[in-house]
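Title: Prediction job returns without error message
Component: structure pipeline
Severity: low
Priority: P3
Assignee: unassigned

Description:
Job completed but the reporter wants confirmation the result is attached to the right record. Sequence as submitted:
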Amino acid sequence: MKAPVFTGTSTAIITPLKNDKIDFASFASIMEIQKIAGIAAITVCGTTGEAVTMTPEEQTQIIKACVNTSGKMKVIAGAGTNDTKRALYQSQAAEDAGADALLIVTPYYNKPTQKGLIEHYTFIADRVHIPIIMYNVPSRTGVSLLPETCALLCSHPNINGLKDATGDLSYTSKVLSLCGDNINIWSGNDDLTVPMMSIGAKGVISVASNIIPDIIVSITNFCLSDKFGEASKLHREYFDLMKSLFIETNPLPVKTAASLMGLCGSDFRLPLCTMSDNTAEMLKSTMKKYKLI
């Protein structure tokens, strides 16, 4: 049985920007809030963190900042790209920076075959010394790790698990059925955390926990304690907020929400940009409903 990198909640943390540079002061403040809320792990340099528009130097800097302020929280560094050698370079840089684990998305745009995916992950896993969490998000990448591919890859000692953002519980069930205790699965969708944990997921890599970390921690802790009635109640209570964080492309709503709460600015790097007036007002209305602003 592979011990999971973490159980419960990992925040897919935003990257505050100011004048087109990383706002490390705001980042440190956000990290402190996460720590106080009892977050188990921080996932840095992911989709929510806008890593694709960071330079390699910036990625290393923010991973180091994350490690230095993480306390007991594990640090999972996003290191995936659509170039295997570059993904290895970023993985090794993240390992050198002190990350506890890596999050590696399936290569986007290239649309590799399943054989190519196996070779991609194996090439990296053979050359790093910290656990890898594979990331399957076909809506963004245009390719999906088949359950049978996961079953082959999870036999590698350095491949610890899968962030499953397929939104398909049948897919999750098939992976768990084929892989058993040889894989750990985490939900990649806040609105599916409870059902996924009910069939065996170990927690969530969450967007919503950027702004309601205590609530997401409570939901996952209830699930881990087999208190699914309590978890479901909280899930239903905060479902509208979870969905509102995806009314435009992630991370536009969650960073805008964080800005409205005074946690950071609302700067983005192109091609991401500020939300439209209409959806921004919808987000504000939902946040007021939950008394976040």
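Comment from assignee: result matches the submitted record. The beta strands are 8-12, 17-18, 21-22, 41-44, 74-78, 101-105, 132-136, 159-164, 184-187, 203-206.
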